[in-house]
Specification:
This protein is an all-alpha fold. It folds into 2 domains: about 60 residues, Arc Repressor Mutant, subunit A; about 120 residues, Tetracycline Repressor, domain 2 (Orthogonal Bundle). It is about 70% helix and about 0% strand.
């Protein structure tokens, strides 16, 4: 990577992201093996070769090791939505925004494991719901700006919640152990179910 290719934030940000991803990978592997409740932060730290304090610096809560930076992806979805033409229906722009966000990184088998953990662990489901609220808070106002007529904000809330549901169903379906379709293909199908 040349100096011109260094992301905003410089090498320190790159290093932070690499360490964060490594810690998350170690944690997800341990959670898959022993169950989320059966693993402590100290055990994750030991497996990764760092202190528990270092883990907490990157992940304030144990649940964040599975959720990772997903909460941050809401901003990426919003940016991709804002880049779409205003002639497009809001739900179509949201679909394209989610698809764009997913294309920024390759999905792995470990991602499937993390998604299965999300759906099977109550505290992770609760943390995922918090992520939904964060994304909805970001997306609803910009969707409302696109809408005309009465109840624009109310309609925007419904559209955003429907998009989040379609996104989650796509992720959960893709993460099933016997699913062979790609995530982008499944995402297209879930948004297609929302109608023309």
């Amino acid at each position: 990577m040349s100096h011109q290719d260094t992301p905003r934030g410089g090498l320190r940000a790159v290093t932070r992201d690499v360490v964060r991803q490594r810690l998350s990978d170690v944690a997800v592997d341990l959670f898959a093996e022993r169950g989320f409740e059966g693993v402590t932060v100290e055990q994750v730290a030991a497996a990764a070769g760092v202190s528990a304090r270092s883990v907490h610096r990157y992940f304030p809560a144990k649940e964040d090791m599975v959720i990772g930076t997903l909460a941050d992806y809401g901003e990426r979805v919003a940016e991709a939505f804002a880049a779409r033409t205003t002639d497009e229906r809001a739900i179509e722009s949201l679909y394209a925004a989610y698809a764009t966000m997913l294309s920024t990184r390759e999905q792995t088998d470990r991602d499937k494991i993390a998604i299965r953990l999300l759906s099977s662990t109550p505290s992770l489901r609760a943390r995922n719901f918090e992520k939904h609220l964060q994304w909805a808070e970001i997306l609803t106002p910009i969707v409302a700006q696109r809408l005309h007529g009465n109840h624009a904000l109310l309609r925007a809330k419904v559209i955003v919640q429907a998009s989040l549901c379609a996104f989650d169903v796509a992720l959960a379906t893709w993460a099933e152990t016997d699913e062979m379709q790609g995530l982008q293909e499944i995402l297209s199908a879930t948004f297609g179910a929302l109608g023309p």
